[in-house]
Amino acid sequence: MSITKRRLVIKSFHMNRVELGDNFRIKDNTLTIGSEYFKNCSYNKDIIKQIDIDIIKPNQHDKHVNNILDFIPISVKCLGNLGEGITHTLTGVYVMLTCASEAGEQMSEFGSSDGNLKEQVYFGRSGTPSANDYILHFDVLLKGNLLGERRFPMQAHKSCDNFIQEIRYKLKQLDSKYADEVHEYVENKASTNKKIVIVKQVAGQGAMHDNIILPNEPSGVTGGKSIIDMGNVPIILSPNEYRDGAIRAMT
Fold first, then answer.
1. Percent of the chain scored above 90 by pLDDT?
2. Cα gap 92→176, rounded to integer Å
3. pTM, rounded to two decimals
4. Where are the domains of the chain?
């Protein structure tokens, strides 16, 4: 019986503090966001009017936000491709992407989550931060009334992904031996064993929101394939690819 093994190691670094500063930096369990980023960053100015970043401290959720497109973990591949090798990830801080148009309409399709953050999010569940986590609030304002095509929310996702990439550069440089937690996942594929399949259905109606498969970075956008553009055909992923952020669900 032949056995093939594939190993994924996820090393987490916990952030006790998130603050603004001159440059992006991760040091002493503190994440610093470069305050000058939005003066120099590039984004599609034909679609996006303005981008704002706000640091929401733990348990300070009594504030109005636009429609929430996603909560995004901050992770980076240090070795190998998605589903194998080594991944660094931050805990204690997550990115929240929100979006609306300057005309006052929310970027939503079947109902909007805009409103008071503490009333719109069930914290501490799968897919949401803990109430004790920091939130990097990335708010995108689109020009005019650009809401009805999926390329508009996609620009918001891409701009946010570019922002997260600045943090990923610093996260990748951290010495693995200082990780707060290390989790190892080994896939054993025996040629004689029965195959077990879990089916996860994600939306791909092609109206406004998309879903990205196998991006370059965990839970990223760049390099990924649109399930809509692929015709919503079935995709086979390994358990470790799924663990490593192979699906970026935008619905």
1. 62
2. 18
3. 0.91
4. 3-193
